[in-house]
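ERR on first pass: missing label on line 2. Operator R.T. fixed the label and resubmitted. Corrected input:
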Amino acid sequence: MLQCGLIVAFVALMAFAVKRIVVAVGSYAELRRAEVRSLGVDDDGLGERFAVMVVDCEPAATLFVCRCEVVVVVNSAADKEFFALMVERFSAVEVRVVGEEEVLDGVRLYRARSGELESLLIVDCKERERGRLSRMVALFTTADWLVEIPCGCSLISGAFKLIDSLVGESDCEYTSIHSLKGVPARIYSVDWLLSADRAAGRVLELNFGLLYRVTPKPKSLNEIKGW
Amino acid sequence: MMITLMLLAAATLVLLFVGWRLPVWLERRMVLSRRLFELYLYRILRRGEDVEPIYGRYFLCRKVARRALAMSVAYLERLLVNLDKRELRRIIVRWGLDREILHDIGDVGWCCGAMESLIALLPLSQKGVRELSRYRSSRFRGRRRVWLLATVRGRRGGVAKLLERVDWRLSRYELRELAAAIKGGISKRETLSLIESGRENCLALVAVLLMQKSSLIGDGEVVGALKMVNGKEPSARCRRLLCEALVRSESFGESKLDFSVADMGLRGVRLAVRSGYSIGPFRGSLTQWQLHYFERLSATFKIAL
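pass 2 clean. output:
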């Protein structure tokens, strides 16, 4: 009886180890494939377009990301200092939509005038529920995909290039892209966020590599000023 | 029984150890590959063809070094314009990189997809292209793409004729890769022959080439070319690409081409807004919420100066 139990335990352990090996090898192969493939894609502006959303934190992590829109969500009532810093840092001006004040319901928009980022939008609102926030930000972006970058994380360079090649490879329309490795990432199609029913659609699951890496946070606001 | 148990225990331990360490080893391999890639880029740019895959203390990773060299050659071939490809080809032939990669693809390798993508990017000799012709009728789409891209890279002109032999619908990404492979641009005559053929792949390729401004036709002739493509009654996907090409051609207002929102999709209208066009021409075809959405978007979207 004991021997049978031992055999079962060993076989279970072996199955666990084999599964781990298969996953590691599969991820490595996918990563190699994506890496080589990214050599062939030019950032020619014809591919997918991404908007990066950061909530209550500085967009330092995204500064190196070119050709994408950056949306910073801030609550000016709760974090006056950070809001003032962002507006001053990027010379932002308020954008008003005539006749839509009641529709936007206390949401104020600021656009950056400094040219460090192609397009920076500061959204001043109290909403923090992720789903509603994404849908609201989707209203103000001209990109095809909305990416939320968690605080303290930065995007791995070339991540958008890889996603672009994978999305463009297939003819089907994905509603979102999920990556569960490292810091979990969810990227939503803006069309899907804007659609009224938001029916479940096709999800592109990334089994390889990381999309984000954790970056050390700036210690003080003065450090942010020195970007 | 005791021996069986001992053997099982030993095998389990070995597998557990490998399973524990393998992700770390593979991660290191990736890091090494990236480092060597940068090193070879630098060396090729400094010394030209006089570069060799060094192994040094990485002698156990000979294959990684050779792949990194092939990747840096592919990257340079892709990046530089008006480059003498012969030098890069000599590196490939001298170290037998193409043969090695083709050999790996021939086996059912675990990095097969990566190698297929890599061989499609390398500047191959005529002999290498001939060897690849066996992939033309492969049942794997990746291999057919390799054949197509390598053939386009290996010869001048005749793209329309080549596309006649392509019997599958090229994806958006494949079209971009193909347009990039025709790096020197495509002549007006060639563009016209692509349009004349009337095939969906050819028309879509013309749209992508016009978007990339790779077709050697004058700026004033872009709209004319698009009209010709439109006259061939292209598919919905092709019409969408045409709309994007038109928006990028900066002659959107004067073109008087009859495109609807259904042709463009929301993505196309967003592109028009991003490019600074008014939503006036689309007003009639938008639903109520779409109209509100695009009005708000065009009122609030501004590019930082």
